[in-house]
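[Q] Does anyone have a clean structure-token version of this?
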Amino acid sequence: MGKRRYRVTSYIIGGLILVFIVMAILVNTTSLGDSTWMRVFFGISALNFTLRASVPLILGAMCGILCERTGIINIGIEGMMLAGAFAAFVAKTNTNDWPLLASLLFGVAAALVTGGLMGLLHGVFSIRYRMDQIISGTVLIILAAGLTAYLFDRNAVAEGKFGTIAIPGLSQIPVLGEVIFTNPPLTYTTLILVVVIHIGFFYTRWGLRSRACGEHPRAADTVGINVNRFRYMNTIIGGMLAGLAGGFLVLEAVGQFQEGMTAGRGFISLAAMIFGNWMPFGAMGASLLFGYTQALQNELLLAGVTTVPRQFVSMIPYIVTIVAVSGFVGRVRPPAAEGKVYETEGGSE
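[A] Here you go.
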């Protein structure tokens, strides 16, 4: 029954995406684009902003999937993102005199390492010391917010960020070429990672063992799988992806660091993960939906919509997040062993 419902939902979502793509092509290539409201909902600007706003959400959702599919609840994605953003900024500002590409890649490496260390810290708290995983995630958020605010040098300036790369041939496709195939490298990397994680989880031995650790850790242990080792490994990899999401904000989106610049994206990523039923493509679709609501907010403000108060327009992404999650909680099933500490027969690890 559950698989059938998931299949039906997938068909519905696929159909809606197809309709949306057709409308976007028509609006941007025919006289339909003369309508202000059509441009607000389907214009190139809205579509580009959607993808740009979705990238950190997708990476954060992938972080959550990696952790929770192996049994570790991770609400600390927000803190991991913020720490990654700050590390990327510090690395970039201290290498401004390097060649731009080398400096940017160093910033990416710093974001990945910092996110991985935050993931390791969450793993140590949750696995080694058996701390409540919700509390551990909350500690990471508070730690990242406090340290980045204290250490942030407001006079520091990061010079340069990743530019767009048009893929030959594909970038010439009407509408889709400009939206999907003309982007900076971290955006391409994110889209590729979704495919890699999906294949890894459902078509490799690592994925089978990871899912076993999140569903039936005792059974996994009896066949020789080191459950806690897999949980450590996936939590660290997940932390690296969250750190990369923060690095994206500094090195590709904004270009600078601001206190609290993640602005709740980690929590929206969690909502996308749940809405997507802990599936990589489902989470990406949910992230695009939430990114689209942010794009609508931006487009409505740019279009000068004054009949609705500005504050209500700014609430759109968060209202959609609440409605989506509240409507799906109870209809989706998290991994069975999520949040449960696992001890081997011989004692603690």
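[Q] Thanks! Anything notable?
[A] The mean pLDDT is 89.
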